[in-house]
Amino acid sequence: MPSAAPPTARLALRNDPSEMARLAAWLDTIERDWALPPGPAHALRLCLDEAVVNVLTHGFRPGQPQAVEITLLRQPVLTAIVVDDGAPFDPTACALPPRPHTLEEAPAGGMGLRLLRHYATRLTHSRPDGRNRLEMEFMPDGEAPG
To answer: What's the whole-model pTM score?
Structure first.
């Protein structure tokens, strides 16, 4: 039976790492209210966590009040849109670092772009009105596209 929850949800976050707890609680509610299957729920959470952490860590100047806005669309395809007024950054245009051959060669961190590209069916970036806009679509079954 389809959920009666609204097909759109929005969340505005401040540029403060403590906001990640609000994002997690909001996603818990979305997953429950929208009755998201485990696969898409996992892909959505992983990609949103990565995108928002990157904006908070690299996109903003310390001490400047800035915001991250997240919009989720339920249909026709589960879509997450992250808009921020931080430094310009297009994750779709960056080259992926080479894969390490061993665990010892693997750097700490630096896998975020690979995760986004793996779990999102479609990943697009634009910069309307001087703001980053990252759109991520997810397969209904939550399987990674490639």
So the answer is: 0.85
Token duo for residue 29: 């509610």
Number of residues in the chain = 146
Q: Which tokens hold the place of 67?
A: 């915001």
- Exposed, middle or buried by CB within 10 Å (0-12, 13-18, 19+), for 89? middle
| Per-residue model confidence (pLDDT) at position 142 | 53
Interval 30-48: pLDDT, tens: 999 999 999 999 999 999 9
- What one-character-per-residue DSSP string does the chain give? ----S-SEEEEEEES-TTHHHHHHHHHHHHHHHTT--HHHHHHHHHHHHHHHHHIIIIIS-TT---EEEEEEE-SSSEEEEEEE-SS---TTTSPPPPPPSSTTTPPSS--HHHHHHHH-SEEEEE-GGG-EEEEEEE-TT-----
Strands ordered across the beta sheet of 78-84: 8-14, 67-73, 78-84, 132-138, 122-126
Hey, what amino acid is at 60? F
